[in-house]
Amino acid sequence: MRLKKTWLTLLALTLVITLLAGCSGNKAKNESANTNSGTPGDKEQAANVYKEKYDPPVTISTVWGVDPALTFKNNETIENNVATKWARDTLGIDIKSLWSVTDTNGAFATKLRLAMSSGQEMPDMVMIGDAQLAQDLIDSGMFREVGPLFDQYASDTWKKAMELDKNVWNPYVRDGQKMGIPVLDYAYNHDYMLWIRQDWLDKLGLQAPKTIDELEKVMDAFKNNNPDGLKPDDVVPLSIGFKNSMNTWMGDPSWIFGAYGTIPQQWNLGTDGNLEYGSANAGMKQGLQKLNEWFTKRFIPKEAALWDENKTSEPAVAGKAGIIPGPYWMGGWPLSDTVKNVKGAVWKPIAIPAGPDGKAGRHGTNFTNGVVLINKNMKNPEAFFTYENYLFDNFADPQPGSKFDFGLFKGYDYDLDADGKPLFMDKIPGGYVNSIRYLLVRDGARIPDAQMKALLNLADGKEPKTRLEKEVKNNYGAETPAAAKVLLEQKDISFKDMFTGPITPTMKTKMDYLNKIESETFNQIIYGKKPADAFDAFVQTWKSSGGDEITKEVNDWYAGLSK
Rounded to two decimals, what is the model's pTM? Predict the structure, then answer.
């Protein structure tokens, strides 16, 4: 009997020890689930645990490419400001800046490449907006796989936002591993429509054009019978520019080619089900001929090949342009300044006009605005997720009554008067500053469909209640909700670049040359220095000089998506 009791006691003790060991093992597994990638920082990482606030504080190092238009107040800098103080006080995270540079003429990319090649200390995390730079940094081997980190640490809000378009991961996948975290942007943020001087239309008794033919008649009237009395040589009927690209975000000419069935400088779905390069499609020839006609009639700027996006806005703001392509938010900036120069000027958004066969098209924009890379030697990568989770859960789309009801930082992007009512833009004491750009990730945290939902609520006549609704009403211009509706009424003509994978081997060696001959040929045709048939010769050269190889690589990647 005593032997039986002793045996039962030992058995119970063994079970308790086994259970305790199992619980301890599961806890350790949960805390270090992201250490299976075999990176050098795994041992340190396993010792860290995700926290809402770190005490003692942890450090995240980074580098900055500072937008030259970004302003500061209260003697702050990008290294030490209201956002770095917020991170330390709220999250227990110290932001350490290794260096910063004003990002003009590619200065940030140049400095980061130099740091990478010369063995300088690399940051714990870095946000990259340059696609080629991002690929080169991934290929350097200095940055780690992020998929397991995201799966373990990202909040449900962030994960749901990312699931709105799972293709956002594609450019940063290597051998099935996710090597960068896409930076989400608002849906349709750089899709565009046409903005037109409605007051000019009204004075001329004209309707908004719905076709290319009608558009030409309107442009002719704007130039040669200008209702403000401007001389023809002073009028820019259609303000476009293609110094940087024919597929851009403001002053964009790509919709002209959309009227003939293609979108340039991106990969489109062809009639055979394969991807084709839009600039080599036969529809480009008709679009180039049309642009040459408009150049000859001076409907477009004579310096269009030298104008970048911001330059195209100058005649519009000055009151000398009649039409400019641009995103739905342009009514807030820069077009709201036109009335300062021309009393009574009114801009209205209109749909993209159709071509002779009823076709219309514009480039679509993906839900991303860059990528975050995490150094494989970062000791506490979970701290970055603490930072971004807070922003996604609290700032990205806060409900009425939250601490971010009016903006991010009081006294910077908003303020309150003596009665507690919000002040925005130039009414803020000391002036408005875009302090959101002080955050580690550009624009903090964005849920792709959140802003469009807010805009449509306002367009339907609802009073603004949420932060996003108040933001678009106060900062984006009175026409913005209506512009969002115009945009979505044509959502089926919005064509995204179908190739979202990493740069292919032949792109790395041949694409610079192919881009060069494309730009030269197209400019020469538009300016009348070469006949339209020069396009056919360009296509043959493009194909034989690497284009066919690139097309095969792109379609091999595309076919792999369905496997």
Answer: 0.79
